[in-house]
Design brief:
The complex is a heterodimer.
Chain A: H1 6-27, H2 33-41, E1 45-47, E2 52-56, E3 62-64, H3 65-78, E4 82-85, E5 91-93, H4 101-109, E6 127-128, H5 143-153, E7 168-171, E8 185-191, E9 197-203, E10 215-222, H6 226-240, H7 251-258, H8 260-274, H9 283-290, H10 307-314, H11 316-325, E11 326-328, E12 334-339, E13 350-352, H12 353-366, E14 370-373, E15 379-385, H13 389-398, E16 413-414, H14 429-438, H15 442-448, E17 453-456, E18 470-477, E19 480-487, E20 499-500, E21 505-506, H16 510-524, H17 531-538, H18 541-548
Parallel strand pairs in A: 6-7, 7-8, 16-17, 17-18
Antiparallel strand pairs in A: 1-2, 2-5, 3-14, 4-5, 4-13, 8-9, 9-10, 11-12, 12-15, 14-15, 18-19, 19-20, 19-21
Chain B: E1 3-5, E2 8-10, E3 15-16, H1 25-29, E4 34-38, H2 42-46, E5 52-57, H3 63-66, E6 73-80, H4 87-97, E7 103-108, H5 115-120, E8 125-127
Parallel strand pairs in B: 3-4, 4-5, 5-6, 6-7, 7-8
Antiparallel strand pairs in B: 1-2, 1-8
Classes of the chains: A alpha+beta, B alpha/beta.
The structure holds protoporphyrin IX containing FE (HEM) and iron/sulfur cluster.
Pfam family, one (chain B): DUF934
Protein name (chain B): Oxidoreductase
Organism (chain B): Nitrincola tibetensis
């Protein structure tokens, strides 16, 4: 993975001291609350219902075992012993003290970590596929490009006061595990007719109160022009994006208002000035960054292992976990292990300090000391020899990290909701608990197959409810929590926005309503048909009839 | 108000003359050696024969509108109505790109924590509210001393340096 050089380190160190001084000036009354708000947000610090919340960046979801141990240390020392992984592959701490945040940042800096631009109206952490570099069908590893974007966007002088937040996702295979089509910019590595690799560029995707799927504005962008093109898009947005209404300030609104073609024309006109400037990437720079992401020294004898087959035969629990929570690796004899942060009871995405240490140790021992965080709030040990899987599984099980539910109904994406978030309309964590209790039976979940359930506690859509196969949105009705349900969304390569099933349901009805939805699916599905495909084929009517039947 | 030019505190010799209701603009704007006016008054002001001419704009004005004037302008002041309005950063960048080399001044809600970024985008002058100014402010430019991106005075990003 990428290692800081002296310049990277100096930037992060100086940023810590700058923030320390900003915090000091704020506490001394020299900096207005409004101005400090913008500055602290650009450093990942929110003030929430309970306490400040600090969001630490995990660039493109890749971290070392050493960094994970530091996160455990922060959770122990400054927080209540846990952290929360988000859909944008960062980690949030819910209970730090404002005065201590500069010290937390200083500790993070010792392991090449920071909280720069994890919030605020600036370019956020660039995300990617959590199987980048190891997926079988990949065209090219997207992570070097994420790192190039990370450097370009970090403390960018021109793009720190954008109309609104700005999120970029990059993918390197046809499968989209990064929800790239609902990002402000989605970049897909593609090959043109000449066999060259470049980027397909999408703009204007986003969720929140106006969900939109991004539109392709360029089918093929030569690699070396990546930064100049991003620069042109950002400049057009910075100059023309709306600033009068924060709900209309995202780039998606600008692209919709102008039309994708006009927007493209503006970008291309701006690009004329920047294309052949110093922003053009050099072959040396591309090679330098790629050099940090070369394949590991895989064990050529890994595929000769015979123990796995035997273990799969002997231990049914292990087999179930293997089938559900591991994925193919492009190198024979290796597997990708998904560490489930979706236990039976407990907030999705939460992890304790002890669990962080355990995962770090496993990474050191079995997976080249690297860990990935995923868009769906799990972790990945991406390169485990098949002979080691049994040992990994045993340790994960012991620490409640091996619930065999990946991509099933209970592998939910859930935002923190009312329990933590000051913007929430409704609670979410009680609902995820209720869903877990209702659908405890794993065999039933396996029969249902792949289902993505996403839940947000308000219209801001941090839990990506619009792109869940099943989406749940908390709404406030006269002080009570109600939940609106959508069906048919997808954040993957076949991206679509869910449609509202009908009137919202009370908190205690959510599990039984889900049960009816799933029963309808089982009645309607053809062999092997996924939940999403059934919904797309039959439409909402059968589901509506079942769910709202008693009302008539 | 305190003015910083090229990281030094200096005396401001420009005064903005804006149209006022009930007063004759031409009369008020006449006889200035250094005349600074809002963009809409540029044409009128140009005819008044001041020694030097400056213009004050907001993010609403596009670079193309300023291009025909550049050779006549000694000062372009870009206004930040609120610090969150980041359009001025891009406008400054564009003005330097089309070859404007005169004074580029940030006015309005200009605070310490944006000075470094503003300078890197091409501003060389900063008008600071009296109560917000202290000499210590001049340190703000170099709080972050290394950068990934190019800047107005050196367009090379890190990988070309
Ligand atoms: C608890 C404090 C949080 C606050 C105050 C907060 C605030 C917001 C707001 C206001 C938006 C809407 C932005 C817009 O529409 O322009 C938003 C969107 C979003 N947030 Fe959060 N959020 C929080 C936590 C989280 C968490 C825990 C996650 C991940 C699970 C997350 C991930 C996202 C994502 C993915 C979006 C959607 C971006 C889009 O519209 O394209 N946020 N957040
Ligand atoms: S969706 Fe709403 S409730 Fe959930 S974290 Fe985002 S802002 Fe808070």
């Amino acid at each position: 993975m990428y290692q800081y050089n002296q310049v990277d380190q100096q930037i992060v160190n100086e940023r810590v001291e700058q923030f320390r001084d900003q915090t000091r000036r704020y506490l001394a009354g020299e900096l207005s609350a409004d101005e400090f708000l913008a500055l602290r947000l650009m450093n990942g610090l929110y003030i929430q219902r309970q306490a400040p919340m600090l969001r630490v960046a995990i660039p493109y979801g890749l971290m070392s075992a050493e960094q994970m141990r530091m996160l455990a240390n922060i959770a122990r020392k400054y927080d209540k012993g846990y952290g929360h992984f988000t859909t944008r592959t960062n980690i949030q701490f819910n209970w730090p003290k404002l005065e201590e945040v500069p010290d937390i940042l200083a500790e993070l800096a010792t392991v090449q970590m920071h909280a720069i631009q994890t919030s605020g109206n600036c370019i956020r952490n660039t995300t990617t596929d959590h199987f980048a570099g190891v997926a079988e069908s990949e065209l090219e590893d997207p992570r070097p490009w994420c790192e190039i974007i990370r450097q370009w966007s970090t403390l960018h002088p021109e793009f720190a006061y954008l109309p609104r937040k700005f999120k970029i996702a990059v993918t390197g295979s046809k499968e989209d595990r990064a929800a790239s089509q609902v990002h402000d910019i989605g970049l897909h590595l593609v090959q043109n007719a000449e066999g060259e690799i470049g980027f397909e560029v999408l703009v204007g995707g986003g969720l929140g109160r106006t969900p939109v799927i991004g539109k392709v504005i360029r089918e093929f962008l030569p690699k070396e022009d990546l930064l100049s093109y991003l620069d042109a898009i950002l400049r057009v947005y910075n100059l023309k994006g709306r600033r009068d209404n924060k709900y209309k300030a995202r780039i998606k609104i600008l692209v919709e208002a102008l039309g994708a073609d006009t927007f493209r024309d503006l970008v291309e006109a701006e690009w004329v000035y920047t294309r052949d400037t110093e922003l053009k990437l050099t072959a040396e720079e591309i090679a330098r960054v790629k050099g940090f992401f070369t394949p590991h020294a895989y064990d050529p004898s890994a595929k000769d292992d015979a123990s796995l087959d035997q273990q799969l035969k002997d231990d049914a629990d292990f087999r179930v976990w293997f089938e559900r929570n591991t994925r193919a690796h492009k190198v024979g004899g290796y597997r990708c292990v998904v560490v489930s942060l979706k236990p039976l009871l407990g907030p999705p995405g939460d992890i304790t300090d002890l669990q962080m240490d355990v995962v770090a140790d496993l990474a050191d021992r079995y997976s080249f000391s690297e860990i990935r965080s995923t868009h769906d709030q799990n972790l990945v040990l991406a390169e485990v020899r098949q002979a080691d899987l049994y040992a990994v599984w045993q340790v994960l099980s012991e620490h409640n990290l091996a619930r065999a539910n990946i991509n099933t109904l209970t592998d939910m994406i859930v935002c923190p909701g009312f329990d933590f978030c000051a913007l929430a309309n409704a609670k979410t964590l009680n609902i995820s608990d209720a869903i877990n209790a209702e659908f405890e039976n794993l065999d039933y979940l396996y029969d249902l197959g792949d289902i993505q359930l996403n839940m947000s506690g308000c219209i801001n859509a941090c839990g990506h409810h619009h792109v869940g196969h099943i989406g749940i949105l908390g709404v406030d009705k006269k002080g009570e929590d109600w939940y609106q349900i959508t069906l048919g969304g997808s954040g993957r390569e076949d991206a679509s926005l869910g449609k509202v099933l009908g009137k919202s349901v009370a908190a205690d009805e959510v599990p039984s309503v889900l049960r009816k939805i799933l029963e309808t699916y089982i009645e309607q599905r053809t062999d092997e048909e996924r939940f999403l495909d059934t919904v797309r084929r039959v439409g909402l009517t059968p589901f509506k009839e079942k769910v709202y039947a008693t009302d008539h | 108000m305190p003015l910083i030019i090229n990281r030094e505190k200096v005396q401001d010799s420009w005064a903005l003359v804006s149209p006022e209701e009930g007063a004759d603009f031409v009369e008020r704007a006449s006889g200035h050696e250094l005349l600074l006016v809002p963009f809409d008054c540029l044409e009128v002001a140009d005819a008044l024969g001041s020694k030097q001419l400056g213009v004050q704009v907001t993010g609403e004005v596009e670079v193309e509108q300023l291009v025909p004037w550049l050779s006549k302008l000694s000062l372009i002041a870009i206004e930040f109505p609120v610090f969150r309005d980041g359009r001025g950063f891009s406008l400054a960048r564009q003005l330097r790109r089309v070859g404007y080399t005169g004074e580029l001044r940030a006015v309005g809600d200009v605070g310490r924590d944006r000075l470094g970024y503003l300078e890197r985008c091409g501003f060389n002058a900063f008008l600071i509210a009296e109560e917000a100014y202290s000499d210590e402010l001049l340190q703000a430019f170099s709080e972050i001393s290394v950068h990934y991106q190019g800047s107005a005075d050196d367009p090379r990003p890190i990988y070309h340096q």
